[in-house]
Amino acid sequence: xxxxxxxxxxxxxxxxxxxxxxxxxxxxxxxxxxxxxxxxxxxxxxxxxxxxxxxxxxxxxxxxxxxxxxxxxxxxxxxxxxxxxxxxxxxxxxxxxxxxxxxxxxxxxxxxxxxxxxxxxxxxxxxxxxxxxxxxxxxxxxxxxxxxxxxxxxxxxxxxxxxxxxxxxxxxxxxxxxxxxxxxxxxxxxxxxxxxxxxxxxxxxxxxxxxxxxxxxxx
Length: 219
What we know:
This protein has nine helices and eight strands. Helix 1 packs across helix 4.
């Protein structure tokens, strides 16, 4: 593979956004006199969206007032989207390593654009991404291939010459379907009940900088 670019999921891969995602849930619950969720359990679901997080409190889409809960949660998150979120250790070293190799990088996230636009400038990336595609950029989000192909077009690269790094099964599915090689981010948000070893990925990394030692970089 003539590697051209490395694309990343955002929540749980590039950035530890759980403090704000879970914090917003705690705010909404406490406003209603309900206890905050156990942080470790909620953190593992932080990359799975508002439905999963609200589900921890027994709030499901089948409830007649679910849309109100969801709106309140998203409003609370908007108020603190970058309050405590940080890049994972080693992310900027990884990005600098990619730049030194002449490789582009980008972000493919299911996070809505309005949140990503507020968050990304505050994270302090060492260099700018070649492309950012959000959950509502295309007609479908991951695990669809649409955002994967759109990102390749924006970055001017071929999917078969790209890596996609993520911490969820949908990331591996989307990358594989697009023809990219995939990397499981073991440091991310992986719930205890899931079995990532059974996901269809090409490589796995324990830390961001470990990615630079993968065979596709050293061959």
